[in-house]
Design brief:
Elements (H helix, E strand, L loop, with lengths): L20 H17 L13 E2 L12 E5 L5 E5 L9 H14 L5 E5 L5 H14 L5 E3 L2 E2 L2
Parallel strand pairs: 1-6, 2-4, 4-5
Antiparallel strand pairs: 2-3
Organism: Aliikangiella coralliicola
GO cellular component, one term: plasma membrane
Subunit structure: The Tol-Pal system is composed of five core proteins: the inner membrane proteins TolA, TolQ and TolR, the periplasmic protein TolB and the outer membrane protein Pal. They form a network linking the inner and outer membranes and the peptidoglycan layer.
């Protein structure tokens, strides 16, 4: 007599749940990476300002428009926060004019690197005065050490 194999009934059913533990691990690793790299990212334009003995300007409620010229002669514009995108001179003038239409009392400052030629700073001042209609422009400096 031959024995018939005994079939066991599989009592396990397929699990229809998603295991999220690996996703949580990946998200924690990404969070740590972003927390470490975020402070290392420098925002803004590195400009080496000339040092002079001058009185600081009074702080208003709204931040000034800062037109920057780096040592390579590239133009940048920031309003309160720094900007790291180089602009053409006509783009900078258009942005300043548009901002002044919204905030006519905003101060405009020029942040020129000490190694940029004086000609570039004066050209920017003339462009801002003639094309954007600015009457008063400030020059930024670092205090003497």
């Amino acid at each position: 007599m031959s024995q018939l194999p005994i079939k066991r009934k599989n009592k396990r059913r397929p699990v229809a749940e998603i295991n999220v533990v690996p996703y949580i691990d990946v998200m924690l690793v990404l969070l740590v990476i972003f927390m470490i790299t975020a402070p290392l990212i420098t925002a803004g334009v590195k400009v080496d300002l000339p040092e002079v003995d001058a009185e600081p300007i009074s702080a208003n409620d709204e931040p000034p428009l800062i037109a920057s010229i780096d040592s390579s002669g590239n133009y940048y514009l920031s309003v309160g926060q720094s900007s790291d995108q180089a602009l053409e001179a006509h783009e900078l003038v258009e942005l300043v004019a548009a901002h002044l239409k919204l905030n006519p009392n905003a101060e405009v400052m020029i942040n020129g690197d000490r190694n940029v030629s004086y000609d570039k700073v004066v050209q920017l001042m003339v462009l801002l005065q003639t094309e954007a209609g600015i009457e008063s422009i400030g020059l930024m400096t670092d205090p003497e050490s």
